Amino acid sequence: MTLFLVRHGRPLAAPGVSAAEWDLDPAAYDDVWALRSSGRLPARAAWFTSPEPKAIQTAQLLTDADVGVLPDLHEHERSGERIEDFPGAVRRAFRRPDEPAVEGWEPLTSCRERVVPAVRRVLEVHGDEDVVLVGHGTAWTLVVADLTGQPPDLARWEMLATPDLISVDA
User: Fold this and answer.
1) Which domain of life is it from (predicted)?
2) Which of 62, 44, 45 is nearest to 8 (CA)?
3) What's the predicted TM-score (pTM) here?
4) What pLDDT, on the 0 to 100 scale, is given for residue 82?
5) Where would you tag: which of 28, 35, 115, 129 has the fewest CB atoms within 10 A of its CB?
6) Are 82 and 89 a contacting pair, CB within 8 Å?
């Protein structure tokens, strides 16, 4: 069984609106369709998505299958304020996971305690079949670290495209 972790397509950033509420940018649909036609996703799988609009919309473009929405797969909670050095703030979050890296941000420990058990429950229920989860880069970085027993791969996080795909043998 393989776990396919899809990072959502490029969102349409809306000033003053929380990133958790952003839609998928219609100009990015071609990128999502390219992933769909790439042959990198399984023909048959159990599909689930984060409840965030950009993730749901990405999943809808990637498959004709039924897609379950799992509330615990939402991204690392962040304030809606624009951060000048966003990658630097995320690196700080990984260095000190028990503390908010920026005022208004959820500590990464809290994100991990929510997302990882949700993923493990899905894997337990769908033990022999491939699973595709559509969600978010920071959350998937935490999941991969947990499933592989390796430290979070921040270089991989920094290179993630929108959309992108990480595969893990589970």
Assistant:
1) Bacteria
2) 62
3) 0.96
4) 78
5) 129
6) no
**Counts of helices then strands in the chain (DSSP H, E):** 6, 7
Q: Return phi, psi of residue 166, to 5°.
A: -120, 130
CA-closest candidate to residue 116, choices 60, 87, 76: 76
Q: What pLDDT, in 10s, does the model give residues 16-32? A: 888 899 999 999 999 99
Predicted local distance difference test score (pLDDT) of residue 83: 85
Among 79, 83, 97, CA closest to 139? 97
Q: Write the DSSP assignment of 96-155 as a string of letters.
A: STTS-SSTTPPPHHHHHHHHHHHHHHHHHHTTTS-EEEEE-HHHHHHHHHHHHTS---HH
Give CA 146 to chain center in angstroms: 14
Residues linked to residue 72 through DSSP beta bridges, in sequence order: none
Phi, psi for 13 (deg, rounded to 5): -65, 130
- Bond preceding residue 163 cis, omega within 30 of 0: yes
Cβ-contact 9, 58 below 8 angstroms: yes
Top pLDDT among 170 and 157 is at 157
CATH architecture of the domain with range 2-75+84-169: 3-Layer(aba) Sandwich (3.40)
Q: What is the pLDDT of residues 69-104, one digit of tens each?
A: 999 999 999 876 778 899 999 999 999 999 999 999
